[in-house]
């Protein structure tokens, strides 16, 4: 029987520059989210220029926030390997750090341009969740953000395609594809928020934002409990603490 090989994390090389699948997937999610957000924002009276300008600032600040969040909770490692702080193509960005940094940027921009912050977040959250769903496939390529060891039969019983099963073969052992659980949970959340939000009078201002926080926080709390690479404060998983605050 033909056996699939693990996917190379490097998509292609341009001379001395290696372009990682992780970066391509993250950027794809961001571009799609910006496009969909812009279309929705214009319908709701927010200018396209405002969304593009806000995205211009939010994306790099969000990435920096996501990386700093991760580095802070792995500080001992990065103090010993300071140059690794900049190697984000290897993974190690924490979505909660990006969300917090992104929200602060949104708040500043909304105050500066007199755009209601909760109107802005209501427009953004379903497409942010879509970008999160897409971004988890970067973790898949890097063989990270997985759960505990399981049998191959367990994965086959989930009726997963062969390429996912083989990518979950890390060092000769198979692992829970928690990236997939979160990706699917986020995708379902996108559909739920859009269906409810787009039916008039079903959601008031800020309720789409609240639904996002509850939906993602609830799913992440349980999925985080399955992961083997969690960031900790003492014996507590950081992402579970933040998830509770979201809910």
From TrEMBL:
Cited Pfam families: LGT
GO cellular component, one term: plasma membrane
Keyword entries, A-Z: Cell membrane, Membrane, Transferase, Transmembrane, Transmembrane helix
Source organism superkingdom: Bacteria
Single GO MF descriptor: phosphatidylglycerol-prolipoprotein diacylglyceryl transferase activity
Keyword Transferase: yes
Stretches that traverse the bilayer: 20-38, 50-73, 85-108, 115-134, 178-196, 203-223
Annotated InterPro entries: Lgt (IPR001640)
A GO biological process held by the record: lipoprotein biosynthetic process
Entry similarity comment: Belongs to the Lgt family.
Protein name (Swiss-Prot/TrEMBL): Prolipoprotein diacylglyceryl transferase
Gene: lgt
């Amino acid at each position: 029987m033909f056996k699939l090989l693990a996917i190379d994390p490097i998509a292609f090389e341009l001379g001395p520059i290696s372009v990682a699948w992780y970066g391509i997937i993250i950027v794809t999610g961001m571009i799609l989210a910006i496009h969909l957000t812009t279309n929705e924002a214009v319908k709701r009276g927010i200018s396209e220029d405002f969304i593009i300008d806000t995205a211009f600032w939010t994306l790099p600040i969000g990435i920096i926030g996501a990386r700093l969040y991760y580095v802070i909770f792995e500080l001992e490692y990065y103090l010993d390997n300071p140059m690794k702080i900049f190697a984000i193509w290897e993974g190690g960005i924490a979505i909660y750090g990006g969300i917090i940094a992104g929200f602060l940027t949104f708040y500043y921009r909304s105050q500066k341009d007199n755009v209601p912050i909760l109107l802005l977040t209501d427009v953004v959250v379903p497409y942010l969740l879509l970008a999160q769903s897409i971004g988890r496939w970067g973790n898949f390529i890097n063989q990270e953000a997985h759960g505990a060891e399981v049998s191959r039969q367990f994965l086959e019983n989930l009726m997963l395609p062969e390429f996912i099963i083989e990518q979950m073969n890390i060092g000769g052992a198979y692992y829970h594809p928690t990236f997939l659980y979160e990706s699917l949970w986020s995708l379902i959340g996108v559909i739920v928020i859009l269906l409810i939000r787009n039916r008039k009078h079903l959601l008031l201002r800020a309720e789409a934002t609240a639904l996002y926080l509850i939906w993602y926080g609830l799913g992440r709390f349980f999925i985080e409990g399955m992961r083997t690479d969690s960031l900790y404060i003492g014996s507590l998983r950081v992402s579970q603490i933040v998830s509770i605050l979201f809910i």
